[in-house]
Write a structure and sequence with these properties.
heterodimer, A: mainly alpha, B: about 200 residues, mainly alpha, Rna Polymerase Sigma Factor, Chain: A, Arc Repressor Mutant, subunit A, 2 domains, elongated, disordered N terminus, binds zinc ion
Chain lengths: ~90, ~200
C-alpha cells in the first residue's frame, strides 16, 4: 500500500473532522464522498478515525465516581448529611 | 455515531440552598471526575480537580448569572482547575514551540492499516485500554482538553469554545489534530496486533 498522499487527500483530511461530525455543506460532502470512493488510504483514515473516537468514548462511559471519592467530596463541602440521599 | 450527552438539570440552584447544591454535586460529579482523570491521568489528581471545582463553585455560586449555561460554567471551573494542577506538577516540559491552532502544522497520517473491523473485545482488552490511556496522555495539553470535552464528554463545538475561551475555528483545528494524533497512535498499536494475528504468533491469553 502506498503511503504517498495526493493534494486531494490532504484537502480531504483537513475537512475530515467536520465530515465525521456532519457539519459540512452538501456539495462539499458529496465531493468528499466521491474522493473516498476512489481512494483506499483516505477510506482507511476515515474508518480508523471514527473507530478511534468510539473507542475513547466507550471505556469513559463506564467511569463513575467511586463511593469513597464521593464521600470525601461531600465531607469537604460540608454536605455530610446528604451523603445517604439517592445517588 | 452515538453521542453521549450528560444529563444536566436545566435550572441552576438558588445560592445557599444546600439540598439543591447536593443535588448539583451528584449530577455533575461524574463528568468532572472523568475530565480530571483523562486530563491528569490518575485518580488522586482527578479527586483534587473534583473537590476544588465544587469548592470554587460553592464560593462563586452567588455570582453565577446564568449568562452561560450551568454546565458551561462548571466545566470552565473544572478545566481551569485541571490546567492549574497540570502546570504545578510539570517540570521540564516546554510547550512554547507548540502552536495548537496552526492548521498548517498538522502532521500527515503515516499508518494506513484498517484495523477498524477488529472485534470490540479485542479493541478494548485490558492491554488495549492501557494503550488508549497512554495515547491520551501523550496528546499535547491544549489538544487533550478539547478532545476530552468534545469527544469524551460530548460537549458541542460551540460550548467547548465558550468553556475554553477559544474561537470555534480554533476548537475545530485542535479537535482535528487531536483526532489525527490519536488515530496514528492507535493505528500503530492495533496494526501490530493485526500482524501478530496474521502470522499466528498471537500469544494465548
Ligand atoms: Zn485520498
Amino acid at each position: 500500500m502506498s503511503d504517498h498522499l495526493h493534494k486531494n487527500c490532504q484537502d480531504l483530511l483537513g475537512s475530515l473532522s467536520e465530515y465525521i461530525d456532519g457539519g459540512l455543506p452538501p456539495d462539499l460532502c458529496r465531493e468528499i464522498e466521491k474522493h473516498l470512493e476512489g481512494c483506499d488510504n483516505c477510506r482507511v483514515v476515515l474508518n480508523t478515525t471514527r473507530r478511534t473516537i468510539d473507542l475513547m468514548q466507550i471505556p469513559a462511559e463506564e467511569e463513575t465516581v467511586p463511593t469513597d471519592v464521593r464521600e470525601r467530596l461531600f465531607k469537604r463541602l460540608n454536605l455530610d448529611d446528604y451523603l445517604n440521599r439517592q445517588k | 455515531m452515538k453521542r453521549k450527552t450528560a444529563r444536566f438539570p436545566s435550572k441552576p440552584c438558588a445560592p445557599g440552598d444546600r439540598t439543591e447544591f447536593a443535588r448539583l454535586v451528584d449530577a455533575y460529579s461524574a463528568p468532572i471526575y472523568r475530565l480530571g482523570l483523562k486530563m491528569l491521568g490518575n485518580q488522586q489528581d482527578a479527586e483534587d480537580v473534583l473537590q476544588n471545582t465544587f469548592l470554587n463553585a460553592l464560593t462563586h455560586l452567588a455570582d453565577f448569572e446564568g449568562r452561560s449555561s450551568l454546565s458551561t460554567w462548571l466545566y470552565r471551573i473544572a478545566s481551569n482547575e485541571a490546567l492549574m494542577l497540570l502546570r504545578r506538577k510539570k517540570n521540564a516540559v516546554n510547550l512554547d514551540d507548540f502552536h495548537p491552532d496552526d492548521a498548517e502544522e498538522s502532521p500527515l497520517p503515516e499508518v494506513f492499516v484498517d484495523w477498524s473491523a477488529l472485534p470490540e473485545d479485542e479493541l478494548l482488552s485490558g492491554e488495549a485500554k492501557m494503550a488508549l490511556d497512554a495515547a491520551i496522555n501523550k496528546l499535547p495539553e491544549p489538544l487533550r482538553m478539547v478532545f476530552i470535552l468534545r469527544d469524551i464528554e460530548g460537549v458541542s463545538i460551540k460550548e467547548t469554545a465558550e468553556i475554553l475561551g477559544l474561537t470555534e475555528t480554533n476548537v475545530k483545528t485542535r479537535l482535528l489534530r487531536a483526532r489525527m494524533f490519536l488515530r496514528e497512535q492507535l493505528s500503530a498499536y492495533y496494526s501490530e496486533r493485526l500482524t501478530r494475528e496474521e502470522t499466528h504468533e498471537r500469544p494465548s491469553p
